[in-house]
Amino acid sequence: MKVRLIKKIFMITLLLLVATLISVFTNYRYKGTFINTNRKIPIYCVDTKEKKVAITFDVSLGDEYIGEILNVLDKYNIKATFFVVGDWIDRNPDKLKQIYERGHEIGNHSDRHPNMTKISEEKIIEDININEAKIRNITASGTKLFRCPEGAYNDIVINTVEKSGYYCIQWDVDSIDWKEQGADIEYNRVMKNIKPGSIMLFHNTAKYTPENLPKIIKKLSAEGYKFVKVGDLIYKSNYRLDNEGKQISD
């Protein structure tokens, strides 16, 4: 009888301990207490009450739809950010010049689009610098924004990018337009996830993007959103990142 009582007390105590731990974990998980907050991450979005967002394009393959995209942006007087790859610049120097001269922001997207988590710090620096020189040669202006090829990163990549003088930029609204699943699917995906401070990702070679851009722009404009370049959206100093990559002003 005594042994049974002791076992019962032990089980109750154990259950209370487990319940307490679950409660503590749930309460602090949002704050990142049990997440490796020392892990380096890029800027995914910005914490702001202002209804402003950034449109970005990754430009690494062909030159399809560049003209159509630029015409849409001109029509609505919107400036976007284009992350370009050096190999693409080699094949399309006139297109890069056109993007820049029409008032858009240029970001560095590497020279050869390698997965930077699989190369050395020295190779990362070399790749970034080669593309930076190509951008500067065409535009006579450098860039302070970098986007990791394939969106792949680790602590070494982020540290190297930041030490090289760049803000590492990811995205929080992915159109996944490269899959070309349909205009409505891509449009709804963007609209469902947009919020103040969002950074949207598109690709210039995706066939539904020129069709969706006007709809997205008109809808968000009607809701009171403003479109800005990434460089005008992010905080340049006195900020921190939460565990989801949201940039928060200190």
Automatic annotation (TrEMBL):
Pfam families cross-referenced by the UniProt entry: Polysacc_deac_1 (PF01522)
SUPFAM superfamilies: Glycoside hydrolase/deacetylase (SSF88713)
UniProt-recorded Gene Ontology molecular function terms: hydrolase activity, acting on carbon-nitrogen (but not peptide) bonds
A GO term from the CC aspect: membrane
Domain NodB homology: 51-228
Listed GO biological process terms: carbohydrate metabolic process
PROSITE patterns xref list: NODB (PS51677)
Record-linked InterPro entries: Glyco_hydro/deAcase_b/a-brl, NODB_dom, PdaB-like, Polysacc_deacetylase_ArnD
Protein name in the entry: Polysaccharide deacetylase family sporulation protein PdaB
